[in-house]
Amino acid sequence: MRFSTVYFPSSAPAATKVYAYRAACVWCFIYATAWALASFSLDPAVPYDAIEALNWAVNNEWGSPKNPWMIGTFFKPLYSLHSASLSAFYWYASHFFVTGIGMLGCYCLAYKLTDSRPLAWLAMLTLNLSTVINVDVIPYNDNFLLFGSWPWIGLLFIKAVYDSPKWWVLLGVLLGLATMSKYTSICLVGMIFFFALIVPSVRRCWQSPYFYIGVVCFLALVLPNVFWLIDHNFAAVKWVGSEMSPHLSMENWLPFLSVFYPLLFVAALLGRKMGHLTWHVPEKVYLSAGILLAPLAVIMGWFSFHQGDRLTEWLQPFFMSAPAVLVGFLSKDVGRHLRRPFNTLMAFALILISGYILVMSLNIKNAGKHFSGIKTFSDEAITFWELNTEKPLTLVGGAQLAQWLTFYIGSHPQVTNKWSEEAQDSIYNPHISAQAIERQGVLVLGKLGEGCQKGAFSDFTNEWKGFKPTVQEEVTFQPSPNKTAQRVCLGIVSPN
């Protein structure tokens, strides 16, 4: 896409502006398609988050030990796709197309704040400098939903305040869905409520029935998860708490820079044009900054005194909207001098995907073969089952490796792990029973590296004392070509 396709003065006629929206849609579609195909073709195995997402989809509950219910709902199609290959494609395609929707949301929010198409393109193309929206998005089953929703939440909020109160309804729905995707979205809800109390232009919402309808929509989506948390001893809250510990940790600012460094790069790219920053901007720019960026101060303040491995993951969704907000503080005159920055940013989009393809194709640091052996092992496991039973495989159990079979065996068998208040494992089966095991049978995996020695199936037999595999076979599992093969015992609890 050449620069002339996206660059034009803000006074362009309406037809040209419509074309610019189409051009932005085309850019996002091409971006999402390219990354979806590249990752699906080259990524050797889906991440563990995909196994979790599939399990939560099968459980069909109003929550999970780590996330609310939206993850399981979004990935329900995985269970209907009786093919590991199709399931993997859905995983990658959904991530990048939802992220593409978020990129378009960044563009629309930036234009709403600046009334300048060039500045809107600058905001959206800034995203291309970061690995957050492509490489980093793949391992998570939740962040990409925030990537796709948060910029639109910012846009709907501005439209509800300044255009029509009817937008409060859609905003309430989207806030509910985002909150049920990841609890981090609560910070946006809190900021909106705070502004509804102190900012006169937002405070008018209390006089509109649409605002209350939006609140009802939000509560209708969120309350079922609240009841689930109560019924499950607040498992998700405890899991988040277990990820942090009190500790003075100023090095946590390094993850902050690792997420937001593209903004510094763009500032350097603009050079003297950054001198065109102005604080005399419409109120809507400050409100957007308050909702989408102000919570960062609270998060960074908290993590300055706490140690945790999840900080980078929590910061990533904030980056999705940051360029749209920050271009709101640039003078519109900057939009006339963006030919070189646009060309540079588009070039970076090509460099990033080319670099990804190169790294995966050349298997640099085992990136292109990591855990690829799970596919071969899954084929051996289902073959072993089919040679010894006539019924379809619906249950797997035993060692943790069995969880991967739920994804890579096309029938997507369920696990036999029961819910435990003590362990609160992220993957479990709330519907499992001894009657189901007796009727359907189980493919049981022994402990990795122990082969078929006595006690290999203890992970399963300790939980289900009335059952013991009657048929067994020792196979090997090699995670990737450069890893040592390990002995694994396959066993079958025969179905009746």
Question: Quick gist of this model?
Answer:
The protein is built from 22 helices and seven strands.
Task: Give your account of this protein's structure.
The chain is an alpha/beta fold and 496 residues long. 58% of the residues lie in helices and 6% in strands. It contains 22 helices and seven strands. It has a five-stranded mixed sheet. The protein has a two-stranded antiparallel sheet with strand order 1-2. Strand 3 (395-398), helix 20 and strand 4 (414-415) form a beta-alpha-beta unit. Helix 8 (143-162) packs parallel to helix 17. It is globular. The N and C termini lie far apart (62 Å). The relative contact order is 0.12. Mean pLDDT is 92; it is low at 1-12.
Main features:
two-stranded antiparallel sheet; 496 residues; 58% helix; 5-stranded mixed beta sheet; globular; alpha/beta; 7 strands; disordered N terminus
